[in-house]
Amino acid sequence: MAKGHVLHVVAAGEVGGAERMLVDLIGARSSTTEGRTHSVALFTPSEKLRALLHEERIEVDDRGSSVREGPWPFLKSTLGSRDVAWLAPVIAKRDARIVHLHTFASQVIGTRAAIAAGARVVRTEHSTRVYDDPSCWPF
Q: Do 26 and 57 contact (CB within 8 A), yes or no?
């Protein structure tokens, strides 16, 4: 793994603007597998999102088909320990120096795992939901 590896954490239920922007940011079409410095840790039930990342030849660590959407699965995932326990070793395996969080759902899990792995956190807010939705405010 190249020094300065960036692990992008995406927890999403569909292909939207954040996911398309991530594909453009990584630039998989113009990069080669050798020497790549970006990869994705993926939490999604969406086969379309998996297919997009695969088509773009982006290296992915996939949490798998056990990921569910909705308020209760979100709370269980973000406040529980299972997803953080899965993600922290991914950060270490990738030797990620930076964990870039792209979606609201990825922010709590990703921050906790990055702290556990000793990586720095960069957060990109792609929506006003975090400001408009009171259920997001505690996070």
A: no
Q: What is the pLDDT of residue 61?
A: 93
For Cα atoms 107, 95, 9, give the angle at the middle one, nearest 5 degrees: 20
Q: Give CA 90 to chain center in angstroms.
A: 11
110: left (phi over 0), alpha (psi -120 to 50) or beta: alpha
pLDDT band at 1 (very low <50, low <70, confident <90, very high): very low
CB proximity list for 95: less than 8 A, separation 6 or greater: 1, 3, 5
Tell me the pLDDT tens digit for each residue of 30-80. Answer: 454 455 589 999 988 888 999 999 999 899 999 877 776 765 666 666 666
Helices (H), the chain: 17-26, 47-55, 71-79, 82-93, 104-117, 129-132
Q: Are 129 and 104 in contact (CB under 8 A)?
A: yes
